[in-house]
């Protein structure tokens, strides 16, 4: 049986007990800029180095747990089209999202469950308003598991007061990201936000010459085409979920910046 600690408000708790193991995971539900506003999904299990995606960018809205019996079930689906299904239960800030992953014979081999107070699964087209809270309702889709692995380091998003130049510093290749921000409100602020920078390959971090500020995180990638979601090279997330969200000027909502990776010594 699973050793998962009970969340008394979690309506999927009994289903989670069907699995023996669990790891912290994060999801991203996404439609902006995708072809025909097709719903996009990415599930990341950072400490295990696994990702599932049908083309969505990195994010953690919401965070939760991935429940499974054996990691070999994920391994057997690496690179193959895999069916998933999204359902939700609850209402308002007590809404929970459930993403089930199936073997070829439609037997579940894992599930992501997380609290979804902003109802992003519904907002991005995975669950209809009339379906919310009903068992077995929701959208199905196909995507692929990968195991790109993750390197990570603590990092800081820093900007001096009165300067438009901002930096994200971390360990990879002794480089830091440098980019320009605009807007009187943010230029006037001194910023020091602590977080974690994750990357697939340390040698490729410097290739992330585009950066997108997606409300609560920064994503670096090789180009700015949404459909090339696999091109991201690194992403930065603050330890405090709300710090980047509160800083973000309206004019930078989902904006793409030109980023430059420079030696740390280049920072004034």
The N- to C-terminal Cα distance equals 55 Å
CATH hierarchy, class of the largest domain:
Mainly Beta
CATH topology of the largest domain: Lipocalin
What count of domains describes the coordinates?
2
**Assembly state (oligomeric):** single chain
Number of strands: 17
Strand order of the largest sheet: 16-13-14-15-12-9-10-11-17
- Morphology: globular
- Which residues form runs of ≥5 with pLDDT under 50? none
Main sheet summary? 9 strands, antiparallel
Helicity level: under 10%
- Determine the structural class based on helices, strands and strand pairing: mainly beta
Please, what is the CATH homologous superfamily of the largest domain?
A: Rhodococcus equi virulence-associated protein
Strand content: 35-45%
How do the SSEs run, as a string of H and E?
HEEEEHEEEHEEEEHEEEEHEE
Arithmetic mean of pLDDT: 82
- Going by CATH, the architecture of the largest domain would be Beta Barrel
Key terms:
single chain, 268 residues, mainly beta, Lipocalin, 2 domains, nine-stranded antiparallel β-sheet
């Amino acid at each position: 049986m699973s050793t998962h600690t009970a969340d008394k408000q979690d309506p999927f708790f009994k289903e989670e007990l069907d699995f023996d193991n669990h790891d912290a995971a994060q999801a991203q539900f996404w439609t902006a800029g995708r072809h025909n506003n097709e719903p996009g999904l990415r599930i990341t299990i950072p400490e295990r180095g696994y990702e599932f995606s049908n083309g969505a960018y990195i994010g953690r809205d919401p965070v939760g747990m991935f429940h499974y019996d054996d990691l070999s079930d994920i391994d057997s689906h690496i690179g193959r089209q895999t069916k998933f299904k999204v359902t939700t239960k609850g209402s308002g800030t007590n809404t929970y999202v459930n993403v089930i992953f199936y073997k070829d014979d439609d037997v579940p081999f894992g599930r992501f469950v997380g609290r979804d107070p902003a109802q992003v699964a519904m907002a991005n087209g995975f669950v209809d308003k009339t379906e919310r809270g009903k068992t077995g309702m929701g959208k199905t889709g196909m995507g692929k598991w990968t195991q790109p692995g993750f390197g990570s380091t603590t990092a800081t998003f820093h900007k001096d007061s009165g300067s438009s130049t901002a930096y994200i510093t971390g360990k990879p290749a002794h480089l830091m990201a440098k980019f320009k921000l605009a807007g009187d409100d943010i230029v006037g602020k001194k910023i020091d936000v602590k977080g974690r920078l994750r990357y697939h390959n340390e040698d490729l971090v410097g290739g992330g010459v585009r950066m997108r500020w997606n409300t609560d995180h920064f994503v670096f990638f090789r180009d700015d085409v949404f459909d090339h979601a696999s091109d991201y090279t690194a992403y930065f997330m603050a330890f405090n979920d709300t710090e980047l969200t509160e800083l973000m000027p309206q004019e930078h909502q989902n904006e793409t910046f030109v980023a430059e990776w420079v030696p740390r010594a280049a920072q004034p």
